[in-house]
Amino acid sequence: MKLNKVEPKYISKSNPRIGLITLGSDFRIEKDFNNMIYGRDIDLYVNRIHCYNPLTNETLAKMSDDITDVTKDILPDQKIDCVAYGCTSGTVAAGYDVIKEKVNLAKPEAKVTTPITAAIKALNKLGIDKISIFTPYTKTINDSVVGYFEKENINVNSLTYFDIESDLDIGKVDEDHLFDVLSKVDLTDSEALFVSCTALPVLSIINKLEEKLNKVVLSSNQTLIWDSFNVINYKEKIDGFGKLFNS
Fold first, then answer.
1. Which domains, and CATH codes, for the chain?
2. Cα separation of 182 and 201, whole Å?
3. SS3 state at 202
4. 85: β partners
5. Which helix (H) or strand (E) holds 85?
6. In the 8-state DSSP scheme, what is residue 173?
7. Per-residue pLDDT reduced to its tens digit, 42-82
8. SS3 160
9. InterPro entries, from UniProt (predicted)?
10. pLDDT (tens digit, 9 = 90+) per residue, 119-138?
11. From CA 193, how far away is CA 130, in angstroms rounded?
12. In this predicted model, what pLDDT tens digit does every residue of 158-198 receive, in sequence order?
């Protein structure tokens, strides 16, 4: 047998890289990221983190114990430009600084974004400080989420919620029913509606909701993707996913 050894040629640079940490039970967030990244010069790499049910502030905070190991396994020993931690209430429970520190132990060079911190950035960008909130969570988690916004000087005028204890059940919420519920939220005294939780099917209905409500609508996945794109300096206009991307 004749052997022919040839020299490989390696690429000299790569697309901007986003590493996504998603809950092990999340049906939605990867779909939303992929729908927005499709056709763009951005690379997405995903790893899942163990999620504990029922959802409480304690179990949400406990997830952060695994962040460093989960991050290490996203392209081991390779550079990631941005790591997105895909849990809104989990960020509130553990604290952004804790999440950032644990991500950077594995990927020191990576910028770190989360849904709740991205939502605050989006509200500030849009000049909005009066909102209504919708969540699928129980009361205890809702109190923490509302408190987070209020500490950031965002006035929460109303809260509507499902009172679901399991992340798996949140992921099974019917999109048409969710649209019907959200379209009836009272926004009289609010400038925007924020829909919390990466597992809810919100991104695909944001345009319709904004037309129906005549208000800005933000969601966990939408703001997380928006901030991830900002971090990697992706500036192209994006239509179809809410007024935020045209701000």
1. 17-114+224-246 (3.40.50.12500), 116-220 (3.40.50.12500)
2. 12
3. coil
4. 21
5. strand 82-86
6. -
7. 999 999 999 998 889 999 999 999 999 999 999 999 999 99
8. strand
9. Iso_Racemase_Enz_sf, MaiA/AMDase
10. 999 999 999 999 999 999 99
11. 9
12. 999 999 999 899 999 999 999 999 999 989 999 999 999 99
